[in-house]
Design brief:
The chain is mainly beta. The protein has strands at about 1-5, 10, 15-25, 35-40, 45-55, 60, 70-75, 80-85, 90-100, 105-110, 115-120.
Length: about 120
């Protein structure tokens, strides 16, 4: 499975940024697959933001839940992150990644190469 992020690169404060992850080599509706968004601000560690499961169920980080929405387009095999009311603190490299999540196994799979989002006026 391969994942590729795409997005605007530069966003102004208070705007909403929309990022898309295009998946190839596998279907986003494959049983037990969970599709994630993760970011890494400059000089900091990875932060899990949220996910959408093969079933369409969504999960969000409590700290970002009020500003985050994840959706999918199964016809395009894509899933999308929307982050609203952005500030310079949202500047980061944003990654999409897949995780296999069953009752007995949890394993991270492929990651995208990441896309830089800079919030600046």
């Amino acid at each position: 499975v391969q994942l590729q992020e795409s997005g605007p690169g530069l966003v102004k404060p208070s705007q909403t940024v929309s990022l898309t992850c295009t998946v190839s080599g596998g279907s986003i509706t494959t049983n037990a697959y969970v599709w994630n968004w993760i970011r890494q601000p400059p000089g900091k560690g990875l932060e899990w933001m949220g996910a959408i499961a093969y079933s369409g169920t969504t999960y969000y980080s409590p700290s970002l839940k009020s500003r985050t929405s994840i959706s999918r387009d199964t016809s395009k095999n894509q899933f999308t992150l929307q982050l609203s009311s952005v500030t310079p603190e949202d500047t980061a490299v944003y990654y999409c990644a897949v995780r296999v999540d069953t009752s007995t196994v949890v394993a991270w799979g492929s990651w995208g190469q990441g896309t830089q989002v800079t919030v600046s006026s």
